[in-house]
Design brief:
Blueprint: H1 5-11, E1 18-21, E2 25-29, E3 37-43, H2 58-74, E4 82-85, E5 101-105
Bound molecules: adenosine monophosphate (AMP).
Adenosine monophosphate (AMP) binds near residues 31, 32, 40, 93 and 94.
């Protein structure tokens, strides 16, 4: 989608520090990391929010979760504990309206989140 930051990274028009990609998913480092490892996992398909995921996207969301677990292992944050977060909508802090999962690790996390 034109004007979408993450579509630009997915297409390669905007530079991203990509750690994983396949035909449907791209994972790249967050530009403003909130943990020693902070990676964004996004579908190549432009979907604005998790609430916009359609029935046809159910498999895609499952793939993203699988990729997250694999990247967590590659980044060596799997054993120490990691967090996979989706901010859905402004009230939850979503700032980029292209669905993305935050993969965070490398430090302890508290609960509940802020
Ligand atoms: P959210 O607030 O959940 O929508 O998350 C958006 C995330 O995108 C934030 O953690 C930002 O730091 C991150 N971000 C913004 N611009 C870029 C960029 N050009 N490359 C990588 N991450 C970015």
């Amino acid at each position: 989608m034109s004007g979408c930051l993450f579509c630009g990274i997915v297409r390669g028009d905007i530079k991203g520090d990509i750690v994983y990609q396949d035909e449907t998913i791209v994972a790249f480092r967050d530009i403003s990391p909130k943990a020693p490892v902070h990676i964004l996992i996004v579908p190549r398909k432009h979907i604005e929010t998790l609430a916009d995921v359609g029935e046809e996207d159910k498999g895609l969301v499952g793939e993203i979760c699988y990729v997250a677990s694999q990247v967590a292992k590659e980044q060596k944050i799997s054993q120490g504990g990691f967090r996979l977060v989706v901010n859905n909508g402004t009230g939850a802090g979503q700032s980029v309206y292209h669905l993305h999962f935050h993969l965070l690790g490398g430090r302890p996390f508290t609960w509940p989140p802020g």
